[in-house]
Amino acid sequence: MKTELKEFRQYVAQVGEIDPIMIDVQKAEGIYVWDTEGKEYIDMLSGICVGNIGHRNPRVIDAVKAQMDKYMHVMVYGEFVQSPQLEYAKYLMANLPKGFDQIFYVNSGSEAIEGALKTAKIFTKRTEVISFKNSYHGSTLGAVSMLSAEEFTEKFRPLIPDCRSIEYNNEEDLEKITTKTACVVAESIQAGAGVILPSNDFLKRLRQRCTEFGALLIMDEIQTGFGRSGRLFAFENYGIVPDILCIAKGMGGGMPIGAFVGSKEIMNSLNNHHPLIGHATTFGGHPLSCVAALETLKTIVEDKLMEGVEEKGELYKTLLVHPRIKEVRGIGLFNCMELKEDENNKEVDWSRVLINLFEEGIISGTHLFNSNCISIKPPLTITEEEIRESCSRILRALDKL
Ligand SMILES: Cc1ncc(COP(=O)(O)O)c(C=O)c1O
Description:
Elements: H1 5-11, E1 25-29, E2 32-35, E3 40-43, H2 46-49, H3 58-68, H4 83-94, E4 102-106, H5 109-124, E5 128-132, H6 141-144, H7 150-153, E6 163-166, E7 181-186, H8 202-213, E8 216-220, E9 244-247, E10 258-262, H9 264-271, H10 287-302, H11 309-319, E11 325-331, E12 334-339, H12 350-359, E13 362-363, E14 373-376, H13 384-399
Parallel strand pairs: 3-13, 5-6, 5-7, 7-8, 8-9
Antiparallel strand pairs: 1-2, 2-3, 4-10, 9-10, 11-12, 12-14
Helix pairs in contact: 3-10, 4-10, 5-9, 11-13, 12-13
Bound molecules: pyridoxal-5'-phosphate.
């Protein structure tokens, strides 16, 4: 049944300016979303890097249904023994590099970032938080305090003190990390900036500097994680291991869940700092989300979804050639196409681009800090034929500009 758009906007709070596309969702499966009029869309956003194993993956659905028949929420996080939490933790740890012993479950990426920041402050007994310009780490106040652009923060001041941003891929700026720094929060690939890859050995230098000055390196793999880069986590492509890993989005295969993961020593500092409450969450590690997360990770590993990712990304780079495309940039299936002005130097009208794509049956979006960049981040399960079909639709949409 069709949902009345006017009513929807009247009753459901909106996130910002009205979006040029509003799909009245009827169903989603694999790489596809259908609206209530039966129109089919290929999802090039994967629900913003959530549907890495495709929408409504049957393994996830079966696991959630089976768990629903046993129990759902029973107690606030950490109070009762729950096997779905343990099983996921063991399987995740077995697939991570050495040094990660414990996971703290939360409900979202922002919450994972908040927990990691608090942990770093307690562990190091320092206050300074360093992040990178044009990074987005969430919408809670701690995460907002790390936003570099005044336009996003001015209305929320005062923010958390002692937060400063430095430039990504600028090795000289790493000198600002000192013995005052509790932590550096970094994305291994800058997502919202328009898929900016780390240049040369930038992440290695960052890792070295943090180690040298005793600052914790917190890696935000909330968007880049779960196989999208061809490795389980994108940092694995660059020969580094962070102190705390923040995950969410693709973790739950469509169910809400997030977490931060670290060594026992680091994680204990948060949990043991007060006899009653270190960090708390009612729904963190919800059993339905944990079984969904386990099946998601098992699907990525057992179905070897990461093996095809590099080749699939390359196919996009080969096929997406058009006078309006400046570059297709990224790694694996974590890409964007950056558009350029037309021959009369007319700027890219990104909302027109998105509407054209939408009309051709493509769901995509721009990037927070670079609206000329359009997401090419389909589910990892996309086939070669489907990639070709999605590219034909994208090129037709650009022809109509
Ligand atoms: C890189 C990154 N970090 C953190 C977040 C925040 O995650 P959530 O929306 O689940 O709170 C996002 C969300 O888009 C993100 O892209």
